[in-house]
Amino acid sequence: MLHEKLKPFPNDFLWGAASAAYQVEGAWDTDGKGKSNWDEFVRIPGKTFKGTNGDVAVDHYHRYKEDIALMAEMGMKTYRFSVAWTRIFPEGKGEINQKGIDFYNRLIDELVKHDIEPILTIYHWDLPQALQDEYGGWESRQIVEDFKNYSITLFKEFGDRVKYWVSLNEQNIFTRLGYQTGMHPPGVKDDKLYYQVNHHANLANAIAIKEFRNYIPDGKIGPSFAYSPAYAATSKPADILAAENAEELTNHWWMDVYAWGVYPKASWDYLERRGIAPEVNVGDFELLKEGKPDFMGVNYYQTTTYEENPLDGATLEGHFNTTGKKGTMEDTGIPGLYKTVMNENLERTNWDWNIDPQGLRIGLRRITNRYGLPILISENGLGEHDKVEDGSTINDDYRIEYIRTHIKAIQESITDGVEMIGYCVWSFTDLLSWLNGFQKRYGFVYVNQHEEGVHDLRRMRKKSFYWYKEVIESNGKRI
Ligand code: BG6
Fold first, then answer.
1. Catalytic-role residue among 110, 308, 379, 384
2. By its UniProt entry, which SUPFAM superfamilies does this protein fall under (predicted)?
């Protein structure tokens, strides 16, 4: 659909940026914080790019005032951050660590002081190691009760000032990388467990949302889903079916549960036939249905293209590009369902991620048509190598172009009738990329932090910083 004139962004549109505790805070063992699964995992040789870890990250824990001052200078309307579970409950449950609560109170107060709407993510992947040790973390149903208590604690402590909440960040990614590819903690490869872990995470998500209504009735909550809309490689019906299979098993498998409390039929039957469908208890589906979100949080980076994969086709494990050397990403697939192929119509980043703003519009419309929920774009952005010239200049025109074209796609979607709450760019400052170290940069603000050696963590505004400031000031008119 081509539009002659685009609708303006709503006046209360939340222009912002996002981060996650482990990737920015540092201070990994400060003020009573307990150990997370990531604090342990990064210490295993060979797991992260050049052995990088979040011990210091970009030291947001100590520099949050400076960072928020920069957000205010930019005119940011919202900042999405996550709480480290281990700061609140060092052992995952039991005694509250007051110093952890105090830190987030200071952070939230500082945001509110600058009229920046806080969006709080309850869980962005840093699980208390104590829970992993005690009962396998997400592998056990016990996590549901502990996650519920942790969530309620946050609702009670911060609900007076925080009205927008994200329950789980990218459940589809932390479970896939944790239990299918083994690239994230706990580094397991077990398909059956993967679906079981997901079922527990679904229950935890639902119970947190259900409880939220009791504590913050005037607030809004939803999960953030890593949505990669599926394309068919060709118009061959077998390829179209492969893309349908992928859309169902890699996207609807989560979003249907969030929105409706049910698993999609064909995928469920497929998993049952393979003996890997999750075990479900009496009452689970009732709970899932009670956890309906107020919005769908969407983390969008790229689309994925699929073609048919016969029953005796390849089981592709696929190598992930974590070095920034273009062309090192490999395809993946499931025999009888689909396999991924490179989309020759799209440009790619140095990490082999497709650049596809129109895919965002397609995805937003699919969600709107299927679920009818408002959408918060909780992440979107470009990870690239940045170069500092003359000591403090960073000309990241490629990032501006990426974000500009995605903002245009959002405006087109709004014109199509999509209800949008806001747009959080990943990320505000540069931060630690879980597997790619510090060299893969996303921020509007450069942080002098690298893989090797000691650095001063100095903040420097990139060209995109000044550009996004204009975008916000003009409410999206000057992109
Ligand atoms: C999302 C995560 O998957 O993508 C972020 O929510 C992450 O935590 C971001 O950093 C970018 O991924 P990467 O691998 O480029 O750091």
1. 379
2. (Trans)glycosidases
ipTM: 0.98
Question: What does the pLDDT read at residue 329?
Answer: 83
Q: Ligand 1: residues within 6 Å at CB? A: 20, 23, 169-170, 173, 226, 299, 379, 383, 426, 433-436, 440
Q: What is the pLDDT of residue 434?
A: 97
> How much is the pTM?
0.97
- Alpha carbon of 261 to ligand 1 centroid (Å): 27
Distance CA 380, CA 283 (A): 36
- CA dihedral 190→194→195→198, nearest 10 degrees, is 170
Told to judge if 347 belongs to the known catalytic residues of this protein, a careful annotator would answer no
Strands 117-123 and 164-169: parallel
Q: Which atom of ligand 1 is nearest to the CA of 351?
A: 15
- Cβ neighbours, 10 Å, residue 347: 10
Residue closest by Cα to atom 13 of ligand 1: 433
Ligand 1 atom with the smallest distance to the CA of 224 is 6
Separation of alpha carbons 142 and 112, rounded Å: 35
The pLDDT of residue 316 is above 70:
no
- Please state the φ and ψ torsions of residue 460, each to the nearest 5 degrees: -135, 130
Which pLDDT belongs to residue 407? 98
Reported as a single tens digit per residue, the pLDDT across 398-434 is 999 999 999 999 999 999 999 999 999 999 999 999 9
- pLDDT confidence tier of residue 312, bands split at 50, 70 and 90: confident
Q: Check residue 19 and give left, alpha or beta (phi > 0: left; psi -120 to 50: alpha).
A: beta
